[in-house]
Amino acid sequence: MLKPLGDRLVLEQVESEEKTAGGIVLPDSAQEKPQEGRVVAVGSGALKDNGERVTPEVSEGDIVVYSKFAGTEVKYDGKEYLIVRESDILAVVQ
Amino acid sequence: MLKPLGDRLVLEQVESEEKTAGGIVLPDSAQEKPQEGRVVAVGSGALKDNGERVTPEVSEGDIVVYSKFAGTEVKYDGKEYLIVRESDILAVVQ
Amino acid sequence: MLKPLGDRLVLEQVESEEKTAGGIVLPDSAQEKPQEGRVVAVGSGALKDNGERVTPEVSEGDIVVYSKFAGTEVKYDGKEYLIVRESDILAVVQ
Amino acid sequence: MLKPLGDRLVLEQVESEEKTAGGIVLPDSAQEKPQEGRVVAVGSGALKDNGERVTPEVSEGDIVVYSKFAGTEVKYDGKEYLIVRESDILAVVQ
Amino acid sequence: MLKPLGDRLVLEQVESEEKTAGGIVLPDSAQEKPQEGRVVAVGSGALKDNGERVTPEVSEGDIVVYSKFAGTEVKYDGKEYLIVRESDILAVVQ
Amino acid sequence: MLKPLGDRLVLEQVESEEKTAGGIVLPDSAQEKPQEGRVVAVGSGALKDNGERVTPEVSEGDIVVYSKFAGTEVKYDGKEYLIVRESDILAVVQ
Amino acid sequence: MLKPLGDRLVLEQVESEEKTAGGIVLPDSAQEKPQEGRVVAVGSGALKDNGERVTPEVSEGDIVVYSKFAGTEVKYDGKEYLIVRESDILAVVQ
């Protein structure tokens, strides 16, 4: 399993079936193209000045919209994941 | 529904009828063209150093003027939205 | 009415009559050309680290000198306004 | 009168007579050419994190050396002034 | 032995045998290519404003995924090591 | 006399006689060429967040090594001085 | 003697004999080439927000690995030294 550090999250691609139901369709021309993913792992949170950590606003299982050029792709155990910072998450789909 | 994170807001376009009444007409030549939108969702607010969040100055339903190149366009459930940071909001129309 | 957010101000142009009396004449060649305006609305102030807001140094009705390339022009109810940050205000004319 | 905001100062040119007595002669080739001026108005001081203001180190009447490309020239009531930030002041002539 | 300073870590390459078991396969085309390494030494942690140090999130022996262009290669006692900052570590493999 | 502001210092050139005794010889090719000077005036110190000032580490009379491209040359009462920030001082010669 | 200011250190080159015993061999091609030096003087430490100084992690006599392009070369009393910031020190050799 991949445990992200700090304010990072591990996302997996949301499959097309889910996208169709209440899904997000993204315009091709947007400069910063948002995309959809499901959160599979959440880091311990960004570090505050006093040494405590910020509780992340997203949880495992959340479907999130993120900025396209954010993050690093990683292939682990045969599956592809994206590691992004929480600040690259625009919104949670509820 | 789209729940924006942190200091982000979800805006929808204001229709022309509303624009005419007390509306804002924006010059085409301005380098940073402001635009009008209605707030449909407000994030939990920017994070302060002490881990608390700043109460946003805008509320759902507010008509706001924002900088044109701010934000990311998202299409959700067939409608177009704009996700912006509160700092990209110039003024609230009252 | 336009209510500016945070450390922003809404300014309107000062008419020439007022400029003549104790007015400011600005050189054309200056790299950063200052200009004169009257404050018509003041935001709630910049946010401090502790979540409080800085009391703005200018008030409604003040005649101020601001940097030319600052701010965003907005046309509202048929009148032109300029929305600037308080940090773009160089001085108050007293 | 011009009342500068925050950490800004209003300076007027020092006349040549004063320059001759214990005056500063500035090399033409210096990349950042310092210049001499007399302080005619002092702002309320830079804002600290706790919302208080820093007491300026210069006072009205001080002769100061400032960096040449600092500030904005303003003409007011027929006289030319320079509005600079206190951080652009290199030294006070005593 | 190399003792890294502050928020730095010393990593050694993970051998291919380990990579095969539950290993990470990294795409060649990624702009920021993540890589795998084993932590052999951990610094005292980044410095907080109050002068204390942040407890690192990784420990000696951890297998970590890091950004490729991070860090400095050092050869010591005939072995190659990589000295990286903890912020360059994307995730820990568990 | 020149009284430097904040974290600034006024330096004068050290004469060659002094340089010879325990002197510093500086390579010509260095990108950032350090140089030697004697401190003739010390500012009140850099401002801390709490509004107090940092006590400078150098005193009047100290011989210091500073980075060449730091500072501003000023000619005052017929003598040349250099006004630098304390952070441009690399070391004190003892 | 050279007394470095703030978070600076004075280093001298480590001679080849020492390098051979448990030495560090550095690749020529590395973008940021680390190098070895012996600490001969330590500054009073970086300044914290509260005006105290951070206790340096290295001591006189330590052999350290530093980034090649860091620091300023100084020749003093016929010997060459390098003045670097502590943040340019990657690791201590133990």
UniProtKB/TrEMBL annotation, chains A, B, C, D, E, F, G:
It comes from the Bacteria. It is found in: Cytoplasm. The keyword Chaperone applies. GO terms for molecular function: ATP binding; metal ion binding; protein folding chaperone; protein-folding chaperone binding; unfolded protein binding. Keywords: Chaperone, Cytoplasm. GO terms for cellular component: cytoplasm. The keyword Electron transport does not apply. PROSITE patterns: CHAPERONINS_CPN10. Coiled coil: none annotated. NCBIfam families: PRK00364.1-6, PRK00364.2-2, PRK00364.2-4, PRK00364.2-5. Belongs to the GroES chaperonin family. Heptamer of 7 subunits arranged in a ring. Interacts with the chaperonin GroEL. This is Co-chaperonin GroES. The gene is groS.
